[in-house]
Design goal:
Helix content is about 35%, strand content about 10%. It is built from nine helices and six strands. The protein has a six-stranded parallel beta sheet with strand order 1-2-3-4-5-6. It is globular, with a radius of gyration of 19 Å. The protein starts with a strand and ends in a 9-residue tail after the last helix. GO terms for molecular function: oxidoreductase activity. It holds the Pfam family Aldo_ket_red. It comes from Conoideocrella luteorostrata. It is an enzyme of class 1 (oxidoreductase).
Length: about 230
Amino acid sequence: MVSKLGQTLHDKEQAEPICRRQLADGQVDYFGLFLIHFPLPLEFVEPLVRYPPGWFYDGKESIGIPNYQAQSIYDKLEYARIRPATLQIELHPYLQQRNLVNLAREEGMAVTAYSSFSPTGSLSLTWTGLRNVAPLMERGAMAATATKHNKTPAQILLRWATQRGLAVIPKTSRPSIMSQNHESTGFRFDQTDLDRIAKMDLNLRFSKPTNVIAHYANISLPWPMP
């Protein structure tokens, strides 16, 4: 079973009681993977301020860290008694994060990619800086690669990640789409395919706390919006 500690609940007085409550609610003794979401303060916090090391729970589970970037990873590794087993990050052809993936692997962490298709909702695509970006599955490179391998663009995007040795977690409630997702590993890209997709990297992040907070909370942020 997998559970997660929310990004605003990292205080040492909160982390362990919340984890114990989740264990009780799930009627389990331990989680196979416990994700520690990156801290998301609503007020600016100086980078040198360290979050207290009460974010871990002494149990049998593995620890995962979603959305951590390099400096946060190095910071956690300085005081974590349980080394993270996995890094979960937004990753797709528009945001390929090669250096971060390499760092995680060097530190012994598996990497899980979310938003493999990049957001396709109207809200995400109207955020400042994203309005002129075509949805990934509508890009010509995706269509050409899908035609070449007789696959859907979604299958191309999933296979691009899994061929790199990344785990993927596509979300769907439709059995037909689940079946298509499962069939995305029965082929391999050649170097021409990989080079074509590599050129699509825009270092473009859709899942940004600044976007979400500003839109839903309507608060004044102490840092500039993209």
